[in-house]
Structures are given as structure tokens and as C-alpha cells.
């Protein structure tokens, strides 16, 4: 373990630092909120969509290193939120954030980040940090911003070391809604913004919120469904009381295996009842767990907006948006489950279907926001099953 005070001397004027659990100090310029936050450091390779990334609840307890060097230059707006609940705790960027330049922008990224209570660190060699994550895995760390440049590095390192880490951590309950909600937003159009939802639409999808991105619900609406969103701990009886035609299992933060006390048994019961099911990311992982498969923590995870995925039914390659640090172990899939999609980066599982049932999941994000929309057909496929 390096002594943080000696690992790299504080450059003159540095107002921000990332202190890894092993004592490495990465210096830069702090922006956004003042203070410190602990989390796992990951990297995201998307070139656009930083506001959606920072507001995706799946990033709870994570510090995002953007590999694209220019982050913040198109500002932020009131529309590109994926959620109002906590997402990433901080971000690390290469270049200083330049003034906003975009017709949709209403607030500078730096001011927006401060208002969201998230910490930024700029002027960092993000290639070196990303290479380190690729070689040695995603480290736990504290990101800190102090305008006076005063940091207690030993205390920051101790906090990073004491943090339990994402493995075994259940965060889905923490970020889930507390009350159910009739979802009202449709898809976004340039000039008119978000459309409405048809409250009389059929079929009716009950979506379980484990830390969901709003664009998933907008896509379900676009595919023709009426959507009711319910909290992560909703019981089977309460789900059934909504009389769903199908149930959607959302994305979310933390370790899927840590949701076994509440989410997985409900999903298993829904499967046994032949309820049509569609899971995205955490929802996909929990669907796999409900069939008896296992999930594992990945070395570095997949986060970006250009991940190629092969659809095994016809060999078509979908370019997808991804954000996951855990994965379904394909070797543990029972005979009752078919692997439907695989990552062309590392061959990891990216989709499953339960044989003889209308239940499937994907590890990636067909709702995009940010990212390509190649996989929208999955929403149509699911809603089409319920007609
Ligand atoms: N986007 C997600 O739903 C992420 C799922 C899970 N928390 C993971 O990191 O793998």
C-alpha cells in the first residue's frame, strides 16, 4: 500500500483528488459539489450523453471516468434526466469543462453537477486511469473537492479502504420509488419534448423499479403499453392486484445476488405463474437468478454506447448501450433457459429466454439514453406478446 502523501505530491493549485484504496492519489481540479464521496471507480466510453449517465440510478455508489476527453461542453437541460434519484456520485474527466454551447442547454455542467450534489475532477490522465482499471480491476476510492486545496489524504484513503465495495451490496431498495405511479411520459421529439401516454392503452405493464431509467418506461409507452411503476419490494399479491398483462424488471445498481431476499423470490413466483416477463440489466440478472443461474462480478465491467452484441437467433449484430459490472454466468444457465445474445467484446452473456415461457432479458440497454436505438424491437416484442 502506498502512502498517499508520498504517492504523488499535490501539484500547486490542485483542488481535487481521487484517492484509491491502495493509497494512490490522482490529482486534478475539483468542480461541481464541494466535499467527498466514496464509490467504485469505473470507466464509460460513450462520446455523448453524460447527463443521462450521471442520472442513471444504476451508477449509484460509482465514480465514472469518462474516456471521451471533452465532457460538459454541451451543458445540461431539464429534459435529459434519467431519474431524479441518486446516480453516480462523481465523475472524472480529461479536459477542463468549457462554457456550454448547445441550443438545448439551460445550465452549465459544473453548476448542474454542484446542484445535483455530485463531485467532478478534471485535468486527469483518464487514459492512464482507464488502463489501470483494465489491468487491475475497478478500485474503490474517494473523490474529493476542496476549493482551498486542503485534503486529509490519510482520512480519505481510510474511508476508501473501509468501504465494503459493490460485491454483495444491495442498492436497489435504496434507489427505488416508495410509492407506485401511473407512468405518464411518452417519447421525446425535437421541438415538442416528451409526449404523453395514453391512459387507456392496452396492454398493461407493471414495471418493478429497482433503480430504473425513465427512458425504459417511455419506450414501453412508445411500443403501445400502459405502464404502472411499482417499488422494488412490492409483493406478488400487490403486483397481481394491478392486473398486469406483463411485468417488466428494471435496471438498477448494486449486486444482483444481494436482492435474493425480496426480488428474486417474487420473480420466481411470477415465472411459475406464467406471467410474461422482460428484464433489462439488473432485471435480466435477477431473472437469471430466479431460474437458478448465477451471476458474477466482472473484472472491469461494460460501460459505453457502442458495445456490439450478437443476436444468436439470426446472427445480427446490435450496437448497444451498456452499463454493468456484474454478469450472468452462462455456464450456470439451467436447461430450461436459452442464451439469446452474447457480447462480441468478451463473449459474456447478454441475453436469455426461458424456454416454453414468455420471459426474456437482456444485459444491455435497448432504451439507449444515451446510445444507439438498434434494440428498440425488444420493447415491441414484449408488448406484442401481451396483446
Ligand atoms: N444497469 C444495470 O442495471 C446494472 C446492473 C448491476 N448493478 C451491474 O452493475 O451489473
TrEMBL record:
GO biological process: 'de novo' pyrimidine nucleobase biosynthetic process; 'de novo' UMP biosynthetic process; glutamine metabolic process; L-arginine biosynthetic process
Catalytic-site annotation from UniProt: 281 (nucleophile), 365, 367
Keyword Amino-acid biosynthesis carried by entry: yes
Residue ranges of the region described as CPSase: 1-203
Binding of L-glutamine, residues: 58, 252, 254, 282, 285, 323, 325-326
Enzyme class at the top of the EC tree: ligase
Any Pfam family matching the protein: CPSase_sm_chain
Keywords: Amino-acid biosynthesis, Arginine biosynthesis, ATP-binding, Glutamine amidotransferase, Ligase, Nucleotide-binding, Pyrimidine biosynthesis
Enzymatic reactions: hydrogencarbonate + L-glutamine + 2 ATP + H2O = carbamoyl phosphate + L-glutamate + 2 ADP + phosphate + 2 H(+); L-glutamine + H2O = L-glutamate + NH4(+)
EC number: 6.3.5.5
Superkingdom: Bacteria
GO molecular function annotation: ATP binding; carbamoyl-phosphate synthase (glutamine-hydrolyzing) activity
UniProt pathway annotation: Amino-acid biosynthesis; L-arginine biosynthesis; carbamoyl phosphate from bicarbonate: step 1/1; Pyrimidine metabolism; UMP biosynthesis via de novo pathway; (S)-dihydroorotate from bicarbonate: step 1/3
Chaperone listed as a keyword: no
Record-linked Gene3D superfamilies: 3.40.50.880, Carbamoyl-phosphate synthase small subunit, N-terminal domain (3.50.30.20)
Domain Carbamoyl-phosphate synthase small subunit N-terminal residue range list: 14-144
Task of the protein: Small subunit of the glutamine-dependent carbamoyl phosphate synthetase (CPSase). CPSase catalyzes the formation of carbamoyl phosphate from the ammonia moiety of glutamine, carbonate, and phosphate donated by ATP, constituting the first step of 2 biosynthetic pathways, one leading to arginine and/or urea and the other to pyrimidine nucleotides. The small subunit (glutamine amidotransferase) binds and cleaves glutamine to supply the large subunit with the substrate ammonia.
Known partners and oligomeric status: Composed of two chains; the small (or glutamine) chain promotes the hydrolysis of glutamine to ammonia, which is used by the large (or ammonia) chain to synthesize carbamoyl phosphate. Tetramer of heterodimers (alpha,beta)4.
UniProt similarity note: Belongs to the CarA family.
Protein name: Carbamoyl phosphate synthase small chain
Gene source species: Allopontixanthobacter confluentis
Amino acid at each position: 500500500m502506498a502512502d498517499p502523501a508520498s504517492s504523488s505530491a499535490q501539484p500547486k493549485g490542485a483542488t481535487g483528488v481521487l484517492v484509491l484504496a491502495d493509497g494512490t492519489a490522482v490529482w486534478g481540479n475539483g468542480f461541481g459539489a464541494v466535499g467527498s464521496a466514496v464509490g467504485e471507480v469505473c470507466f464509460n466510453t460513450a462520446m455523448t450523453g453524460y447527463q443521462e449517465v450521471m442520472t442513471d440510478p444504476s451508477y449509484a455508489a460509482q465514480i465514472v471516468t469518462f474516456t471521451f476527453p471533452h465532457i460538459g461542453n454541451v451543458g445540461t437541460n431539464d429534459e435529459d434526466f434519467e431519474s431524479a434519484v441518486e446516480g453516480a456520485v462523481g465523475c472524472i474527466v480529461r479536459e477542463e469543462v468549457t462554457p456550454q454551447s448547445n441550443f438545448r442547454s439551460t445550465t452549465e455542467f459544473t453548476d448542474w453537477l454542484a446542484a445535483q450534489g455530485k463531485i467532478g475532477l478534471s485535468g486527469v490522465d483518464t487514459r492512464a486511469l482507464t488502463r489501470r482499471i483494465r489491468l487491475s480491476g475497478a478500485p474503490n476510492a474517494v473523490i474529493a473537492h476542496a476549493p482551498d486545496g486542503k485534503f486529509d489524504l490519510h482520512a480519505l484513503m481510510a474511508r476508501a479502504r473501509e468501504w465494503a465495495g459493490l460485491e454483495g451490496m444491495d442498492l436497489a431498495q435504496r434507489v427505488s420509488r416508495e410509492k407506485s405511479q401511473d407512468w405518464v411520459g411518452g417519447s421525446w421529439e425535437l421541438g415538442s419534448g416528451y409526449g404523453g401516454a395514453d391512459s387507456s392503452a392496452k396492454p398493461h405493464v407493471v414495471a418493478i423499479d429497482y433503480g430504473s431509467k425513465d427512458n425504459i418506461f417511455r419506450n414501453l409507452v412508445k411500443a403501445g403499453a400502459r405502464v404502472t411503476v411499482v417499488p422494488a419490494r412490492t409483493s406478488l399479491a400487490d403486483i397481481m392486484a394491478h392486473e398486469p398483462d406483463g411485468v417488466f424488471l428494471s435496471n438498477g445498481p448494486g449486486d444482483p445476488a444481494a436482492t435474493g431476499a425480496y426480488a428474486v423470490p417474487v420473480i420466481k413466483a411470477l415465472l411459475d405463474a406464467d406471467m410474461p416477463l422482460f428484464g433489462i440489466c439488473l432485471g435480466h440478472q435477477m431473472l437469471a437468478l430466479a431460474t437458478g443461474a448465477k451471476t458474477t462480478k466482472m473484472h472491469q465491467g461494460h460501460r459505453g454506447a457502442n458495445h456490439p452484441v450478437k443476436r444468436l437467433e439470426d446472427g445480427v449484430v446490435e450496437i448497444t448501450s451498456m452499463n454493468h459490472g456484474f454478469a450472468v454466468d452462462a455456464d450456470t444457465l439451467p436447461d430450461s433457459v436459452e442464451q439469446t445474445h452474447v457480447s462480441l467484446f468478451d463473449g459474456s452473456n447478454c441475453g436469455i429466454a426461458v424456454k416454453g415461457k414468455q420471459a426474456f432479458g437482456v444485459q444491455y440497454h435497448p432504451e439507449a439514453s444515451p446510445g444507439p436505438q438498434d434494440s428498440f424491437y425488444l420493447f415491441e416484442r414484449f408488448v406484442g406478446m401481451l396483446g
